[in-house]
């Protein structure tokens, strides 16, 4: 007997509306679409009636998506997911009128999380980070970034990056591990910021890069963080190791950090409430992505809006992320971020969704692998119980994600999660 002809697809998903997110300003909708998967990648995406044959001949595994909406798996391109401790007491203080800067200057804020994180062991941080990651995953996130930055010494930064690496390897989610040694000045370096930057550049960064724990390098360029001169030293060290950079810039004041990041062809500059037009132009010229973080804007009760119109005018792609962290954005709600990008930042629902798919992939430098539903990209797909992709930014407080394909593997989520 002749062997059966090999199936075209490892699996085939039928009866769905696909928001491919390939179209600037729109959703790139394909109605009554099919997605064929081979070796974890998208091998067919298009109207089901354009499939190159009968379902039975194409695959042994055909699935009915029940008319649901498929989007690219969401991408949370800016998170500080790995830490221990809790800053609810600081939240209460801020509600009484104490500012984020005042709390930081008194040794609270980031440094209080650093103290808790230094005390916790790898297992505890791993469990906590996995719980946070699982919450994001069950809301459709298949790719995310995890920054270090709550260790601020070699051993604890290693612990955080190791947790991110183990979670990447164990869960199969695509995780970018970002070294944020220059997040705050640790107490043992008080008054010696330049010496701390020397430690970051000459010891921590080369050691952790050598151990294969770093995909990208970030810094907090701010009057309560590090100066542009100190940030440039970190970027020089990263560049020497061939690592891409990105920057927390213009969050609380205009330090011209985005323009500095542009000189290093950074992947992104993030926050950006105080960015001016020169900074926007520099980002445009360098091909950078603007990562806007409505959770931090909201929690800090900021009133200065990021310059969305200028970013549009100069065609700087905008990404949206949770910025999950225990201080300024203790948020595990990607859909709420889509909503806030619209209600607070005046983005359109299509721009917001592009911000957590196509443009978020770009912010990570991973646009060849994920962020849109296109031939050859990883079969990372979220399936939603909604009528139209704009519904994602419209409602929050419920989770319409019924499951995701992660590199072609189906994970179903119960209703009510
Ligand atoms: O993205 N701005 C600096 N880093 C974080 C906040 C960190 C913290 O407060 O723990 C942010 O907002
Ligand atoms: Fe951040």
Using brief descriptors, characterize the structure shown:
16 helices, binds N-(iminomethyl)-L-glutamic acid, binds fe (iii) ion, globular, 4-stranded parallel beta sheet, 417 residues, 2 domains, 36% helix, TIM Barrel, Urease, subunit C, domain 1, alpha/beta, 7-stranded mixed beta sheet
Model description:
There is one protein chain. This protein is α/β, with parallel strands linked by helices. It folds into 2 domains: 11-72 and 373-412, Urease, subunit C, domain 1; 74-364, Metal-dependent hydrolases (TIM Barrel). Helix content is 36%, strand content 21%. The chain has 16 helices and 15 strands. The strands form 3 sheets. A 7-stranded mixed sheet has the order 3-2-1-4-13-14-15. A 4-stranded parallel sheet has the order 5-6-7-8, sandwiched between helices. Strand 10 (268-271), helix 10 and strand 11 form a beta-alpha-beta unit. Helix 7 packs parallel to helix 8. The longest helix has 18 residues, at 154-171. It is globular. The mean pLDDT is 96. It binds N-(iminomethyl)-L-glutamic acid and fe (iii) ion (FE).
SSE map:
Layout: E1 11-19, E2 29-38, E3 41-47, H1 55-58, E4 62-72, E5 74-76, H2 88-95, H3 100-105, H4 110-119, H5 122-137, E6 141-147, H6 154-171, E7 174-182, H7 193-210, E8 216-219, H8 228-240, E9 247-249, H9 257-263, E10 268-271, H10 277-286, E11 289-292, H11 294-299, H12 308-313, E12 318-320, H13 334-343, H14 349-355, H15 358-364, E13 381-384, H16 391-394, E14 401-406, E15 409-412
Parallel strand pairs: 1-4, 5-6, 6-7, 7-8, 9-10, 10-11, 11-12
Antiparallel strand pairs: 1-2, 2-3, 4-13, 13-14, 14-15
Bound molecules: N-(iminomethyl)-L-glutamic acid and fe (iii) ion.
């Amino acid at each position: 007997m002749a062997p059966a002809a090999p199936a075209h697809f490892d699996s085939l998903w039928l009866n769905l509306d696909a928001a491919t997110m390939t179209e600037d300003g729109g959703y790139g909708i394909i109605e009554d679409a099919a997605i064929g998967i081979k070796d974890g990648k998208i091998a067919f995406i298009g109207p089901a009636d354009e499939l190159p044959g009968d379902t039975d001949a194409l695959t042994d595994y055909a699935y009915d998506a029940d008319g649901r909406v498929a989007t690219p798996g969401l991408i949370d391109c800016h998170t500080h997911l790995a830490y221990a401790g809790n800053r609810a007491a600081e939240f209460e203080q801020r509600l009484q009128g104490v500012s984020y800067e005042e709390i930081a200057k008194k040794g609270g804020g980031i440094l209080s999380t650093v103290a808790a994180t230094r005390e916790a062991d790898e297992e505890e941080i791993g469990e906590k980070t996995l719980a946070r990651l699982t919450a994001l995953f069950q809301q459709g996130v298949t790719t995310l970034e995890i920054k270090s930055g709550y260790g601020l010494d070699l051993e604890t930064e290693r612990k955080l990056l190791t947790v991110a690496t183990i979670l990447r390897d164990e869960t199969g989610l695509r995780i970018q591990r970002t070294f944020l040694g220059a997040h705050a000045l640790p107490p043992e370096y008080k008054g010696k910021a330049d010496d701390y930057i020397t430690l970051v550049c000459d010891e921590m960064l080369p050691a952790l890069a050598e151990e294969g724990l770093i995909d990208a390098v970030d810094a907090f360029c701010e009057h309560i963080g590090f100066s542009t001169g100190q940030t440039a030293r970190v970027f020089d060290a990263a560049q020497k190791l061939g690592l891409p950079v990105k920057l927390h810039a213009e969050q609380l004041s205009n330090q011209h950090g985005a323009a500095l990041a542009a000189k290093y062809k950074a992947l992104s500059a993030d926050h950006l409430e105080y960015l001016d037009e020169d900074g926007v132009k520099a980002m445009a010229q360098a091909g950078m992505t603007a990562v806007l973080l409505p959770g931090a804007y909201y929690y800090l009760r900021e009133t200065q809006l990021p310059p969305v119109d200028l970013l549009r005018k100069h065609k700087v792609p905008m990404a949206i992320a949770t910025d999950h962290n225990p201080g300024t954005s203790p948020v595990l709600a990607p859909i709420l971020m889509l909503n806030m990008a619209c209600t607070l930042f005046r983005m359109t629902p299509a721009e917001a969704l592009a911000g957590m798919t196509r443009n978020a992939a770009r912010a990570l430098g991973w646009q060849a692998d994920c962020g849109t539903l296109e031939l050859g990209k990883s079969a990372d797909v979220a399936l939603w119980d909604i009528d139209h992709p704009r519904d994602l930014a419209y409602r929050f407080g419920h989770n319409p994600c019924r499951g995701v394909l992660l590199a072609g593997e189906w994970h179903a989520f119960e209703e009510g999660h």
